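Quick one: structure for this chain?
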Amino acid sequence: MNQTIITLSTGEQIRTEAPEQQILEHITNNQGMMNKAFVVIGDVHIATAHIVKIESKVNETHLPVQTEQEDTSVSTVQLEKTEEIADRNQFELLEQELREAMQTRDIFALDTFLHDDLVFINHEGIYVTKEMDLEAHRTLAVRFTEVSCSDLQIKPTKDGAVTISRIHLEGQEGDEKISGDFIYSRVWQLIGDQYQVIAGHCSKL
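Got it. Here's what it folds into:
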């Protein structure tokens, strides 16, 4: 809604919703000079001799300020969703790279992905440390010919994520053949500037 501001020589301002043109018609004579008469416009009493400026202005108090807040809220939600998708993509990639490292016996990559204090329980209920896992790959005690994922669930946490995946394994462990589907759960946590697995569990289906 528009508002007209009348500034007096005393510095006082009078605000009215009366249009600027209407006020000018009341306080000027036929020659366009300021009328010295005391006039009343609506509920506003004006001593015209004291008027120094008349200007129109949009009344900011009537603007729909809620619209900007709603837009900001929507933007925040969209930003959070975008970040969540980015996080999910990152952990999907980490899981894929870890599976590839298991299949190719990439000791360097496995050393990078696994935390030094890793706590892992395998499908036989045996506690496996990081060094035990690396040694098994290093000495070929465990050899995977296939490590494929058919389902992956990601549960974001404050500093990482918990992943639950269905993995099909083919390979050899000692003299025993490895073949079947397994459920792996892993806890990824940000350590320094990279994510590492700090805990995990495996169950055979």
